[in-house]
Amino acid sequence: METTVITIFTPTYNRGSHLAKLYESIKQQRYHGFEWIIVDDGSEDGTGKLVEGFQAEGKVEIQYFFQQNAGKHIAINRGVKAAKGELFFIVDSDDLLMADSLQIINEAWRELYAANKAKGFAGICGLRCFQNGKVIGGEVAYQTLDVSMLDYRYRYGYKGDKAEVFITNILSRYPFPALTGETFCTEGLVWNRIGRSYKMRFINKGLYVTEYLNDGLSAKSFQLRKKSPTYAMLFYSELLNTPGISLRYKLRAALNFWRFAIYDRRHSLIEKQRQIRQLWALCFLPASYFLYCLESLKK
């Protein structure tokens, strides 16, 4: 096998059948300088035995770790610590790689090095596609774009999930916070923190196919944030106080901060206001409470 350049990282929870499909797509890769790290977040469907079967085949270098329902963000922390690859490629268990995905990543990264541009970059970022080939978030108006993840979202306005590939050493300096009693933290919290110091090279190439499951994290995003309000508040308060973010996104962040702050029972109103820091943001508390009441009526 070639020198390990890319770590494919997959967090999983009761996704045995989907993990097997992902494994098949990994075996089809034209580029072989990679390892696969799987962090199992407490599966009860025999995922561990399934992975043992993968390892027994000896076709892919696999590291497998088990944790007890700590959440995807903690799984990422563990994967980063164990990674041997220069690049860290997050691929969910319900995704499928295209046959040239790793080749595209390697070529794009080497191109940055050849142009002496790698300094100041945290990695590269490709596109995700639906099974019908359409780009998630819509088509993009670039072949390559060198900007921060913050500018990509909040200045250029690109939407939808993307295929992030980070330099492992940089990602290791930005671990996800671990909060007792909460298990969902949006990856955007750390991606935004990285975006304050580094750019990404965005490429107009699909890296994998995503299937959004009815019981997946994307489908349950609101409910998960409601159950982990401290993480949600942290994300929105940091976004609100990020320089260069337009008023439109600041207003939305203020509304969402208070929307999830209502579900938080750990902190007082004064503590929450100190966290968000912007006094004017209190104006959104009544609107957030109204949304809370509407959501309560849906139960």
What would you note in describing this structure?
The structure is a single chain. This protein is an alpha/beta fold. It has two domains: 6-210, Spore Coat Polysaccharide Biosynthesis Protein SpsA, Chain A; 221-297, no CATH class. It has helices spanning 16-27, 47-57, 72-82, 101-114, 149-154, 168-171, 188-195, 221-227, 229-240, 247-261, 269-276, 285-297; strands at residues 6-12, 34-40, 62-66, 87-90, 95-97, 121-129, 144-147, 162-167, 199-210. Strands 1, 2, 3, 4, 5, 6, 7, 8 and 9 form a nine-stranded mixed sheet that branches. α9 runs antiparallel to α10 and α10 packs across α12 (285-297).
Number of domains: 2
- The named CATH superfamily of the largest domain: Spore Coat Polysaccharide Biosynthesis Protein SpsA, Chain A
Please tell me what the overall shape is. globular
* Helical residues, percent: 40-55%
- Number of DSSP strand runs: 9
Q: How far do the termini sit from each other?
A: 54 Å
What is the string of SSEs from the N terminus onward? Answer: EHEHEHEEHEEHEHHEHHHHH
Number of helical segments? 12
Unreliable stretches (pLDDT < 50, length at least 5) are none
Largest sheet: 9 strands, mixed
Q: Which class of the largest domain in CATH terms?
A: Alpha Beta
| β-strand amount | 15-25%
CATH architecture designation of the largest domain: Alpha-Beta Complex
Work out the radius of gyration.
20 Å
Fold blueprint:
Elements: E1 6-12, H1 16-27, E2 34-40, H2 47-57, E3 62-66, H3 72-82, E4 87-90, E5 95-97, H4 101-114, E6 121-129, E7 144-147, H5 149-154, E8 162-167, H6 168-171, H7 188-195, E9 199-210, H8 221-227, H9 229-240, H10 247-261, H11 269-276, H12 285-297
Parallel strand pairs: 1-2, 1-4, 2-3, 6-9
Antiparallel strand pairs: 4-8, 5-9, 6-8, 7-9
